[in-house]
Amino acid sequence: MNNFFEQLNRDLKQSNGALPRLIVDDQALEQNLQYVAKKLKYGSHLQPRIVVKSLACLALLKTISLKLSTQRFMVFHMPQLLPILENFSDVDVLFGKPMPVSIVQHFYAMNQNCRQADIQWLIDSKARLLQYLGVAKQFSLTLKINIEIDVGLHRGGVRSDFALIEILRLIEQNPEHLVLAGLMGYDAHVTKLPSVIKKIDVAYRESQDIYQNYKNIIQQQFPHLWRADLCFNGGGSPTFYLHVEQSVCNDLSFGSMLLKPSDFDSDGLSVLQAALWISTPVLKVLPFTQLPGLAVLDKLPHSSKALFVYGGYWMAHYVYPRGIHPHALYGRSTNQEMVNVPKNTEIAVDDFVFLRPTQSEAIIPQFHKLYCYKNRDFEAWETFRE
């Protein structure tokens, strides 16, 4: 990677953009998309669904949508819904978490032209479904309802046969205003559990068994609600590789793994490349770290230079130059962060240092633009700032 960052440093200095930048490496993104497309080709039982919060940039989403031939999106944040509806002609939206009913009311009150939009609203309880039924009656709508099921993550959602049956009965009793769209079961816990507690294959099989049981209830006890086109959504980036091999789902969500921030370093995603970086210029170079009030330490041998960079304290790890790291005692700063590099590092004011974000969904909204780095040039893409 050293050659990559050295070239990126030179290209940034020539671009006259001496501010912190969020950069997506087009070559790495393209290779990740090729891998995903290949896996989906063999996992033909699954339709891909792009997670908007993790890729919160319209140009990036359009690129991915085109490469993967899908306009299915998962939305988690209401302000990101309209840009998706307005910019994709054949869009299919599934909410990834339940929205407060007041937000749903406001959306339909302010956007009459969206009342026929293909939106699956996620509900986690009968009580919330009753709230949504009220909205449907208020605006004379038929809402598509997707039911959140707990497949082992324990983050809410339906946890018993009885709870699911209650919800299905309410949908069945209100065909004018409610239609069953499917189920959503997020299984991120599968790859996060320590192996001494439960191995990945066991955890995945158990989560799939839970999911299949809820599917069976719909098909066997509510045949009038069962349709071939019901959306059985599952997955997420951590378990993508498991679902493409075998899954009771037919709809697979993922997003972060396409940029592969460091939180998504795992054996199952090892073939994917990191594609998202933060660059920030060096403002000051000092021969060593001077700690306030501890001048006596200045006389000791020093193995590191001290750099002050533009900004800092992002959810990210410093990765270049080699050996760069924040100082444990000096503290962190979002304004001018001090970092150390080995004493023999060749670096000067106006050079750039680089960080790898831990998450994409937390970092992208912090930057007004995402810069696509392609053929040694930078194309600025507007991000969703909230």
Describe this protein's structure.
This protein is an alpha/beta fold and about 375 residues long. It has 2 domains: about 1-20 and about 275-380, Lyase, Ornithine Decarboxylase, Chain A, domain 1 (Beta Barrel); about 25-260, Alanine racemase (TIM Barrel, Alpha-Beta Barrel). Helices cover about 30% and strands about 25% of the residues. The protein contains 10 helices and 17 strands. The protein has helices at about 1-15, 25-40, 60-70, 80-85, 100-110, 125-140, 160-175, 190, 200-220, 240-245, and strands at about 20-25, 45-50, 70-75, 90-95, 120-125, 145-150, 180-185, 230-235, 250-255, 275-285, 305-310, 315-320, 325, 335-340, 350-355, 370-375, 375-380. Strands 1, 10, 11, 12, 13, 14, 15, 16 and 17 form a 9-stranded mixed sheet that branches. Strands 2-3-4-5-6-7-8-9 form an 8-stranded parallel beta barrel, surrounded by 5 helices. The chain is elongated and about 80 Å long.
